[in-house]
Amino acid sequence: MTDKQKAILEITIIYIIIGVSGILSYQYIDVGNKIWNMFVADVVMTVVCYIFSVIKKNTSTYDAYWSVIPFYLLAGCYFFLHGDKWGTPQWVAAFVISFWSWRLTLSWARGWPGWHHEDFRYVNFRNKFGKVFEPINFLALHFYPTVIVFLSFWGMIYVFDLKNSLFGLKEVPLYFYLGALIAFLGGVFELLADNELDKFRKRPNPQKSDILKTGIWGRSRNPNYLGEMMFWFGLAIMAYAFNAPWYAALGSVGMWAMFMFASIPLKDAQMMKNRPEAFKKYKEEVSRVLPF
């Protein structure tokens, strides 16, 4: 067994433990509301993940949480919200979420080198904040992403809950399926982007100044983030079709803001630092996000 295989096995066990902690917390910590119960379970899982991050001295332990937990929440909806009685809309939504979750998780596993690697942003935070890094590590790098993902998923509980007022009606608003299509296409965008990125990483005779600009990366500098935004806004549209409150979209808006004003600028700054001339030309030729 290679070092990476051992690392994959270890982190798989970690995420099984994280999932079990979520199941137990949902069953034994009752705050009187199924949505809040799910949120509490999510927070408990985040705390467990953070503990493992500290043990491994690697905040990238959390990286897989982003894509794994929505599937855990989906599974929770199935088992605790009478999934055996779901209809076509619920299964369409479940397929879209599962496709996004499994594809992104497998892509992460394919590109993760192992425990010796930690995302450059986390390394920068460690170096910048020193002794006060751990509070920032938990609040900013673990808890905040958990909250924003849960808020973005929250509206889907209105789709999966059989007690929703629209459940059982013969007709579901057509824009539900439009939202599903947008979310699915977002996952497809990410799939194309990740495949191109994998080919780029395996290119012969790599040079530090090389820039990925083949396929979809030749149309958008951030097709993966574009796919993410499409996915989360697609979920919001599906949720609205099942009478989710207007503020159920705040998570998706928060996602958009995080990508546009944090993730993309940080990535651009890193690219400009490592490949100044090549990246400057790339910025002039290719759109920041939208592929046109």
From TrEMBL:
<dbReference type="InterPro" id="IPR010721">
    <property type="entry name" value="UstE-like"/>
</dbReference>
<keyword id="KW-0472">Membrane</keyword>
<feature type="transmembrane region" description="Helical">
    <location>
        <begin position="93"/>
        <end position="115"/>
    </location>
</feature>
<dbReference type="GO" id="GO:0016020">
    <property type="term" value="C:membrane"/>
</dbReference>
<protein>
    <submittedName>
        <fullName>Uncharacterized protein</fullName>
    </submittedName>
</protein>
<dbReference type="Pfam" id="PF06966">
    <property type="entry name" value="DUF1295"/>
</dbReference>
<feature type="transmembrane region" description="Helical">
    <location>
        <begin position="248"/>
        <end position="266"/>
    </location>
</feature>
<keyword id="KW-1133">Transmembrane helix</keyword>
<feature type="transmembrane region" description="Helical">
    <location>
        <begin position="136"/>
        <end position="160"/>
    </location>
</feature>
<feature type="transmembrane region" description="Helical">
    <location>
        <begin position="225"/>
        <end position="242"/>
    </location>
</feature>
<feature type="transmembrane region" description="Helical">
    <location>
        <begin position="172"/>
        <end position="193"/>
    </location>
</feature>
<feature type="transmembrane region" description="Helical">
    <location>
        <begin position="7"/>
        <end position="29"/>
    </location>
</feature>
<feature type="transmembrane region" description="Helical">
    <location>
        <begin position="62"/>
        <end position="81"/>
    </location>
</feature>
<keyword id="KW-0812">Transmembrane</keyword>
<feature type="transmembrane region" description="Helical">
    <location>
        <begin position="35"/>
        <end position="55"/>
    </location>
</feature>
